[in-house]
Amino acid sequence: MPLIKEIDYGTRKINSKKMVTLKIDGFDVCVPEGTSVMRAAMEAGIQIPKLCSTDTVDAFGSCRLCLVEIEGKKGTPASCTTHVEEGMQVHTQSDQLKGLRRGVMELYISDHPLDCLTCAANGDCELQDMAGAVGLRDVRYGYDGTNHVNQRGASDELNARWAPKDESNPYFTYDPSKCIVCSLCVRACEEVQGTFALTIEGRGFDSRVAASMSEDFFESECVSCGACVEVCPTATLQEKSVIEIGTPEHSVVTTCAYCGVGCAFKAEMRGAELVRMVPYKDGKANHGHSCVKGRFSYGYAAHKDRILNPMVRENVEDPWREVSWDEALSFAANRLQGLQKTYGKESIGVITSSRCTNEETYLVQKLARAVFHNNNTDTCARVCHSPTGYGLRETLGTSAGTQDFDSIEHADVVLVIGANPTDAHPVFASFLKRRMREGAKMIVVDPRRIDLVKSPYVEATHHLALRPGTNVAVVTAMAHVIVSEGLFDETYIRERCDWDEFQDYVEFVSDPKQSPEAVEALTGVLAEQLRSAARLYACGGNAAIYYGLGVTEHSQGSTAVIGLANLAMLTGNIGKQGVGVNPLRGQNNVQGACDMGSFPHQLPGYRHVKFAEVREPYEKLWGVAISDEPGLRIPNMLDAAVEGSFKGIYIQGEDILQSDPDTKHVAAGLAGMECVIVHDLFLNETANYAHVFLPGSTFLEKDGTFTNAERRISPVRKVMMPRSGYADWEVTQLLANVMGADWNYTHPSQIMAEIAATTPSFANVTYELIDKLGSVQWPCTDAAPEGTPVLHVDGIVRGKGRFIRTDYVATDEKSGPRFPLLLTTGRILTQYNVGAQTRRTDNVAWHEEDVLEIHPHDAELRGIKDGDWVKLASRSGETSLRADVTDRVSTGVVYTTFHHPDTHTNVVTTEYSDWATNCPEYKVTAVQVSLSNGPTKWQEHYQKQSARSRRIEAAE
Q: Which residues contact 127 (CB under 8 A, 6 or more apart)?
């Protein structure tokens, strides 16, 4: 495919319904009222020269290249800042305009290095293109380059005038000598990203872009989203990859494999080498924006640690032995079949990953049901978001979020609870911050002061800094205020919800023991502040709820989700734009992994295996009988392995030893198995206990689809051939066939066709439809053949919304004299999940280790200073890491991430889990923190064991 060149219309699209007709160069053009003359011309196929305009930021009118003539008006106005008028007659070319544009361009070129032939942006430079567009052939002002000398040894006067190139950022350079001060980067940072990290300093010839309040980009507030690089019309801001590799020559549109936002990117290539990832403007989830991970952190795909050949070993104490694919698959199949023969068909199972495609995940659960003949299939999606599925299904009838991301543009009040969008979902956070700058109010419910609470140019109206584990009490207290003060929407409830169940809920929630005053001591949230937040949510206009793992990863995760749905139904905030209950999925395909039937009790589409009518289509298609008994979840598999009845597992793309709670128990379970098959990119921590390693493929090396947090099914398209020889879906098919199956898929589109044929919500989904529309949101049925952006529009999907009581039940994990602090965990912007991908990129420059955030008061009591080694201990285990003394956390609360295996944070988390789904309670662990001299004995032992387990025999 050739390089995809997207049209830049120069100014933003206007959505006015009133149309205006005008003439441009004699052609009739009809556009929405408020459209700029520049955009109107571009929509008519007439390109007006420009340098300071792009359709992702507001018009600025500084470059003066886009001048036009308008009949009946004096002068030559800038087309980017001039709006169309009915009957207007515009001329984009005349002798006068040509002369003016050439003169302006001469001034730019006179102060710009003319090293075009050796410049990294040669052929991809808007300044170069516009010089040609205006017909500039001569420069009268005699540029000699002295303004831009930045070599060592130059005079102090010259160096003071032009700073040297800033290469501090790992991914892009800043060369002030090539800056034309168009301000595009500054405006992109402000308007698109919302970080305000850049400014223009100096005046006249001395003016230049600079990182605000910092000497360089790396130390600044810059979050490396790439928005500034994307809009720069010269080589002032340039990807280092382009400098090193060269200009790309072809591209493929695909979907990011990091968080649940599901950003669309153009993977731009030179031959078989990836040059850069460019956010795709037509991407429905990201609209041309990106974050540091999606934009720059793809280097792991070519990292030296990748395992490209299958490996086996008889015992985990043995070194790995590289073998052929045939030998590895036969070894795995014989082991698994032998275990079933000895221990029974229930003795083996599978684990799927939220990082894999829908098609791959579908095949893995099919492997369990159609080849292993059991329902022992589970997924990391259950480990993080299964309470979402349960809670929303019970109350609203669907196991997914209600809105698309664009809905945020219509929200007046936003409740963010248990989520940190700026770190975990940065592109959506940019949309959220923009809406806040436009006037939307925000309520943040989080034990930690996340950036949305207060950062430059945005500030939450309320921060309810609750004690970890008390979500249900806080949410129910908000509902108490809404009901007791008569703030609920009775008309909506009578029309769309079950009135009898509502009456029962009112009786429950009106009880004074649910009031903010009654729960203040429990939650740590001041009663009046909680009341004020509840009133704002109920009375502030369109109110939207966005939540994350800080809601679901609790012993009452499902109850908390039910409580949030209750809030939305109480106030009529379901079924239209700007409202809803929306989970922010942590990984790229959490939604898809759930949709595809990866749970042991559900087939694709969230349909229980106990129903014969659900099993029947699969039994007919697959030619096997499917058990009506739910299989084992991951913790059940591990328990059974310790007991001796569960013996073998196939794990695709998941590292349960690092990501799952109570690491020692996970290790004991894996050690008790006789055949652990790890299918992944790297020798991860789980592979320490593996007998077979099957090399995986990155998202760049395969076709398929991901489903993001807004139910958007987006294309994953092969950019390069799989380095290991096979895409992941092919490996699963090979294993199934060696075990006696007869699968004959030749492309993932055939797998999607099978999904569509058997899953009602995917009924009309095809690769052709996805390619045509760019993406599609399920349900995609005959009633909605192009998908459904917003759910519950014509009524609650289950028929009538169901109010359910949300009694607060304290977790069994309690702080006390031995473990007086509460640990909660989360993520950081530059790292992702267990860090297997991001740790193998330059992102480690920002976050090279996990640290423990601790409040200054708690640190002082323990004699801890910033940067000290501290021991973090719970009743499950202990680990050591460095302290970060900060008031971002409250007294009595500590916080850390889980991105680095050196820390192994989950060695301290416990076995407690959600009552309905077994989702682990990562967010509440009673701990003690004390000074340490370095890694614990357990960490040292683990590192030695890990190194021994990763030995690979030299090839003969």
A: 51, 108, 109, 112, 180, 233, 234
DSSP E strand boundaries for 178-319: 198-201, 208-211, 237-239, 250-255, 264-270, 273-279, 311-312
Class of domain 821-949: mainly beta
DSSP conformation letters of 685-742: SGGGG-SEEEE---GGG--EEEE-TT-EEEEE---S--TTSS-HHHHHHHHHHHTT--
298 CB contacts (<8 Å, ≥6 apart)? 274, 277, 700, 841
List, in order, residues 6 or more apart from 606 with CB less than 8 Å away: 389, 393, 399, 594, 595
Instruction: Return the biggest CA–CA distance within the chain.
Output: 92
pLDDT tens string 873-915: 999 999 999 999 999 999 999 999 999 999 999 999 998 988 9
The pTM (predicted TM-score) of the whole model is 0.94
The pair phi, psi for residue 800, each rounded to 5°, is: -130, 135
Half-sphere exposure of 350 (CA within 13 A, CB side): 30
Distance CA 305, CA 602 (A): 36
Domain 332-383+589-777 CATH class label: alpha beta
Cα–Cα distance measured from residue 59 to residue 351, given in angstroms and rounded to the nearest whole number = 50
- Separation between Cα atoms, residue 614 and residue 101, nearest integer Å: 68
The contacts found for 510-517 with CB under 8 angstroms, 24 or more apart, are 510/480, 510/483, 510/484, 511/480, 514/476, 514/477, 514/479, 514/480, 515/477, 515/480, 515/481, 515/484, 516/477, 516/480, 516/481
CATH fold for domain 386-583: Dimethylsulfoxide Reductase; domain 2 (3.40.228)
pLDDT digits (tens, 9 = 90+) for 218-245: 999 999 999 999 999 999 999 999 999 9
Q: So where are the chain's domains?
A: 19-133, 332-383+589-777, 386-583, 821-949
CATH topology of domain 19-133: Ubiquitin-like (UB roll) (3.10.20)
